[in-house]
Queue: 2 jobs
Job 1
Amino acid sequence: MAFLKRINSKAKSVKNTGFGINSSSYGGRFVTKSGVANVRKSGIGFFDSISWFHTMLNIPRWKFFFIIILFYFLVNCFFASLYYIIGVENLIGAEVTTTAEKFGQAFFFSIQTLTTVGYGHISPSGFLASFTAAVEALFGLLSFAIATGLFYGRFSKPKAHILFSENAIVAPYGDGTALMMRITPYKNANLTDVEAKITLGLHIEENGKVFNKFYLLDLEMDKVNSLNLSWTLVHPITETSPFYGFTEADFKNSIGEVIVIIKAFDDMFSNTVVKRSSYIFNEIVYGAKFAPMFTRDDSDSKTILQIDKLNTFDRVKL
C-alpha cells in the first residue's frame, strides 16, 4: 500500500473535520458515494445503536413496503393463531369444516378486527375471544397510526434532489489545471443559495508514520444563487493547492479522498437540505473535460438539461 510522502508546503491542513488523524484506524473511504459516513458502530447492543424511526425513513422504498406488508401478515397470523387456540367455534358466523378453513376464517377475522373494518359476518363470543379481539383492535389502531406517520415522514421529508458525477476529473483550466466534479438537480425542486465545500483527505507518511491530513480546497465559485442546470465545481490547482505538483502517477499510487458537501435552501419545504458524496483517487480521471449537458430545444424556447450526460467527459492531454 503506497502512501504519499510529499505534499505542497504552501497548502495548509485543517483539523476540525470530524475525522481522526490516525490512518491505521480507518478502513476504506471516509464517506460513501451516497454521502454516509463509512462507519460501523460496535460495543453497544444492536437495538441501542439503531434509531428505528430514522431507519424506516431512510431505507429504500421497496424495503419499506416489504417491512410494512410482512408486519401486517405476521401480526394477523399471530392473532389468527390465538383465535384458533381459543376455538373457532367462539367466532359466531364462521362456517368451517376442515383445519385449513378454521385457520382461514380466524385469519380473515383477524384482518377485519385489526383494520376495524368489522363486516359483521363473524363476531366473537365468550370472554377470551372478545378480549383478544379488543386487544387486537387497539393494537391495530396504534399500528396504523405509526404506519401513517412513517408514510407521511417519508413523503414530507426534505431531500436534496441532487446528483453527483460518478467521477471527478483533472482538466485544463486557464494556464494550468483544476480538479472538477459536476452536480445537477434531477427533480422539479427549486434550490437556492446553494453552497459547496470540498475537503481533501490524504494518507501521508511522515517520519515513518502514516497520518490522515485534511485540506479545505478553494473553489473558483463556492456559492450560486440558484441551481437550475448543472454546476461544475472547480478547484484551481495553484501554488497554494495541496494538488500542486501532483502527477497522474501520484493519483494512481496515493491514497486520498475528496469529500464534497452541498448545502441548499429548498423553498418548497422552506428548509435547508444537504447532500454529500466523495471521490477516492481511483475515481478521479486525470486528463479529461466534461462534455456539455444542456442545450436549447428545437423551438429555441426552452433549455434541455440532459441528466444522463452528467458524467460524460472527453479525454484531453495535460
Note: Helices lie at 46-49, 52-58, 61-86, 99-114, 127-156, 248-253.
Job 2
Amino acid sequence: MMGWYKESDGRTRRVFWTTSAGWALDTADGLVFQYLIPLLVLGLGITVKEAGLIASANYFAAAIGGWTGGWLCDRYGRARILQLTILWFSFFSFLSGFAQDFHQLLAIRVLQGLGFGAEWAVGAVLLGELVSPQHRGKALGTVQSGAAVGSGLAALLAGPVAALFEPDMGWRIAFWFGILPAALIFFVRRESDDPEVFREAVAHAAATGERHSMASIFRPRLLRITLLTALLSLGAQGGAYSVGNYTTAFLTLERGLSPSVAGVCVLLLSAGGFFGILTNAYLGDRFGRRFTFRAFALGFMVMASFYLFAPLDSSLWALIPVGLVYGFFQFGIYASFGPYFTELFPTEVRGTGQAFAYNFGRASGALFIFGVGQLAAYLALSAAMAVLAITGMTIALIATFLLPETAGRDLISMRDLN
C-alpha cells in the first residue's frame, strides 16, 4: 500500500500529509455539528428542526463553495487555494463557538460550509497531479481514510470532551478546537507545490490567451463526462446517506438499543470504513476504477440489506461484526472518487469539474435523506432506507458502464480532447 510513498519526493510526501490531516480535520469540523445537536438544543436553546435547517444549509453551502473553490484552484493555483480553504473553514468552525442564537449560528455555518466543500476537491487535485498514475488510487485513497479518523475525532470532541463542561460551554469548546487545522497552511508552499502538469497548462493558456470559466465543464467536449460523474456521485453518496443518516434511529427504534449503545455501534462503523477505504485504494490501481466502484456498490447493497433485515435482534455480538463489514463498504466506496475524477477531467478544468461532480452528489444526496423520511410514513424505517439505498447505488452502477476506464493512464489536457 505504501510502496509509492517510498518512491515519492519530499514535496509529494509533505503534500500527502498535509492533505491527509486537512481532510481528517475537515471531516471532523463537518461532523462535530451533527454530534453536538443535543448539546446545542440544551445550551443554545435551538430546536431540533432549527438544527436540521443549519445542517442542510451547511451542506448546500459546501456544494457552492466546492464548485467555486475548484474553479479558483484552476485559475490561481492548487497550493494557494488549498491554503485559503483550510484557513477559511478553520476560522468559521472556531467562530461557531461564539454564536449567541440560531440566526448567528446559521450564518456562521453557511460560511463555514463554503470552505468545507472546497478543501477535499482542491487537495485531491493537488496530490493527484503529483503522484504517478500507477499509484494515484493508493495515494488518494489513503488520504480519504482520514475521514474515518475525523469521524472519531468529532465524536470524541462532542462526547467526552464536551461532557467535561457545562452544557452552555461544552459545545463552544468543541467548536473552538476547529481552529487547529489553520496550522496546516504553513506546510504548503504556494507556487513551488503546484504540480508541473498544472504549470504547463497555465503557460499554454498564457501563450494562447485561452480562458476557462466555471461553465467550461458544460461545453460539448466535456458535458458527457460532467453529467455522468455528477450522476455517479449522486448515486453513491445518496445511497450511502439513505442508510448512514438513519442508522442511529434504526438501531434504537427497530433493534431496541439505547441511544448511547446505538451511538457506539455507529462509531464502530468508521473502523470498518477505514479498512474499506484502504482496500478500495489498492483495488482501484490493481483492477481499475470501474470494477472497484461496482464491487463496493454491490457489496454495500448486500451488506446494508443484511444489516437492516437479518434477524440479528439487539445482539451486539451480531450487530457489531456485521456493522463493521457494512461500514467497510459504506465508507470504502468514497475512496474511488478522488483518483477517478482526477483522471476523467482535463488539467485546465480539473478542479472545477471534480469539485462540481463531488459536491453535486453531496448536496443532491439530501434528497435521498428527505425521501427516506417521507417513505417511512408508509413503510418500516428499515424498508425505506433499503429502497433509497438500492436506488442510489443502482444509479451509480449505471454511470460506471457509461464512463471510460482511466486507471494507470496519464492525466489529460483540453488539447487531448480536440
Note: The two ends are 36 Å apart (CA to CA).
